[in-house]
Protein: OmpA family protein
Organism: Lutimaribacter marinistellae
Amino acid sequence: MTLPKFALAGGLVSALALSACTDPAMLGDGSDPNRNTRGGAITGAILGAGVGALANDSNPGLGALAGAAIGAAGGAAIGNQLDKQAAELRQQLANDGITVTNTGEQLVVSVPNDITFDTDSATVNPALRADLGRVAENLVRYPNSDVRIIGHTDSDGAADYNQALSMRRANSVADILQAGGVTYDRITTVGRGEDAPIASNLTPEGKAQNRRVEIVVIPQNAA
């Protein structure tokens, strides 16, 4: 008796998922510099196995294996790119206030508004232009990604005003990246205002964390 292709796909996907859970690189104390390469390969294999099995009506088991191999290669390539790009950015940026977070699927470069803009201004401070120029140089070296620039504020003031200010600030950062060689078609700007806090708006420290511009780097073949 032959198993339905859904059962075969599910079995292989479950096995791959179990390997992801038991892989020391995925348990993650953050010490493995290639953890996102490994994680991307495992995730790609899981997704590829399921798609391959469902796509191959005549031999779902073979389709799952082929899909897993293709997915693993693609996922590893994305993870490797993000690992390298994040390491380069951290080395190149001079301001300790700028953080680079590698989620395994995208990079988030967070730039605090307090060091980037004067109060109620959307003009980038001259001291930050050099670092944003280095971000642009990095993005030019890694052209196979989309860039989403998201402005955020704290909750002080009117929500509509905060949203408009966050959009102007995102556009100002986008202008500097474009001047540094990042093509217009790669960039999307978003103003979130006070809608996406990462800390409490009840304390000055929390408000300072919420006032930020995020440069999100998304590999194009990760979609």
User: Anything to note?
Assistant: Strands lie at 99-102, 107-112, 145-152, 187-193, 212-219. Confidence is low (pLDDT under 50) at residues 21-31. The helical segments are 5-22, 24-27, 35-55, 60-92, 113-116, 126-141, 159-179, 204-210.
